[in-house]
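Suppose you are handed a protein chain with no further information: no name, no annotation, nothing but its sequence. What can you learn? This example shows the usual starting point.
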Amino acid sequence: MNEGHQTARLIDAHDVLLLDLDGVVYLGKLPVAFAAESLAQAAAAGIHIAYVTNNASRTPEVVAEHLCEFGLAVAAHDVVTSAQAGARLVAELVEPGSRVLAVGGEGVRAALEQRGFDVVHSAEQEPVAVLQGYGVDVSWRDLAEAAYAICAGAIHVATNTDLTVPTARGRAPGNGTLVAAVVSATGVVPHVAGKPESALMLESIERMQAKSALMVGDRLDTDIEAACRLSMPSLLVLTGVTDVDTLFKAPAHQRPSFVCADLRGLLEPYPLVSVVEGRAQCRDWVFEYQGSGINCTSQGGDRIDGIRAAAALCWWGADHQLAIDVESLVNLFNSLVRL
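A reasonable first move is to predict its three-dimensional structure. Written in structure tokens, the prediction is:
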């Protein structure tokens, strides 16, 4: 995290927020608590916001309309989908106007048509590429057509490979689960456009003309890793799929620069998180590595500060090849929070 450095507010250090959607702004059709009002305040402060989603099922216009229902001022141009990045990737691999098989929601078809491709829905139409994205109505027949086309020589491009997607009812199978089925049938590993690959991120940065962007997401293996690959600062919010245990175990290439409970953290002074010789501190929370275990002192500070300090200690331990019992640390932390 921001060891040795402290900002006043996160939005004060960045000109553009690259914002994931599922698990950050909404869960299904429902808004995440405090998301809309926090983003409205950030926009009022002059911060540009791009909504960058691995979910390829909907068009940017439909996504923008959904966000406007929460009271946000969002245009289609502000929404960057993995379907758009996937269509851009297809354009780099095949001739203009080629036949491309679309698998997924309306967003996949629309992105391909915007790039001038001849969109088809059957392998019998001899497509030269397959763009596979998420769609709630994707069926076995759709996956079979993709497999037939790929086995016949079509290039396979996946919008993203998220294994799960957060919904209001919990985690559901994501596009990565469906892509895995096609890969299992064909033996062909696809090109991938979405996070953590860089195509979607670069499309977003270019469109927003960002000079100092901050990636904001809820997943370590997509949002945060994508930022790490581009040496970009990132904020993890704990409103989606990442829990404390997963955060503490994060490998170096999936560690966020900042951690907040929700998007309100964008507007609050971010505290210093320091780690010195096995002693991690964030405001009132202090965790110390003592070889045989972890000692913690807390004066009743905010839970999120404890998470920041504990995560920093775990990462310090991993980097120094020390055996920190993460499960015991999680249990210790939870017991202190309940006091």
